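To: structure desk
From: M.T.
Subject: fold request, one chain
Message: Could you run this one when you get a chance? Sequence is below, nothing fancy, just the single chain.
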Amino acid sequence: MQETVLHNQSLIDFTLHHCGTIESIVAMAVANNFSVTEEMQSKSILEIPADIIKDSDIVNFYVNKKHIPAFNYTAPASLDKEGIGEMIIEKTFIVR
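Reply: Done. Structure tokens follow.
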């Protein structure tokens, strides 16, 4: 079965929307030659393998409530590197 990627959907969102579980994300990525973290283009057509793991209750919930997961979370390009993660105890972080 084929489905269209909607605006702002990541592969996680798409998999949740059509399979009801993220357990299927690797199978979905392999079937469509995608990386799990690759940015997806809206209106792309993805193949949903027939033997993929599905949770029908979750899929039906999305359909009945007309919810469409589309968060497209991406990690920040650079993380603030200040704070305790950059300190060395007894050198730059003195405990008294």
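Reply (cont.): Helices lie at 11-19, 25-31, 56-65. Let me know if you need anything else for the meeting.
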